Amino acid sequence: MDPIRFPELVAELYGLVAELEQMFQRPFTPDGHMVGSIGEALAAHHYDLTLLPCSTPGCDATIGEKRVEIKATQGSRVAFRCKPDYLLVLKINRDGSFDEVYNGRGNRVLALVAHKPKPTNGQWQVSLGSLRRLNGSVHPSERIERTR
After folding, report:
1. What percent of the chain is helix, strand and coil (3-state, nearest 5)?
2. How far apart are CA 91 and CA 121, in angstroms?
3. pLDDT tens, position by position, 29-72
4. Are 48 and 63 in contact (CB under 8 A)?
């Protein structure tokens, strides 16, 4: 990955989105796989993660022996199907930057929804507000270190 060009490309993408929205007065919000892939690429770049093949169950990347699930959103919640070893949740901003919402062990997040039946689509939804509050209790030694 080119550490100079990658952030430029993400910023260009969001610049194009803003231009289209202004031109047509319609939302052109990237979503779905695109936001997930942007989040995975941002995480790989900023946390020195090694991305795994797409659709690896419960794990998007590794760092050493740690298996990391990466969730990215532009909205107010994320969904997950299983308990990841480590979970990194990023809120993608309109300028292509991001905010780290949660960075820690996945079992902490699973505890938020463990008392609920699994939804019919197989994905638990967790609000970013809940994740931010939970993130405040994560010990620094449990976090994936941000390197950039």
Report:
1. 35, 25, 40
2. 23
3. 888 889 999 999 999 999 999 999 988 888 999 999 999 999 99
4. yes
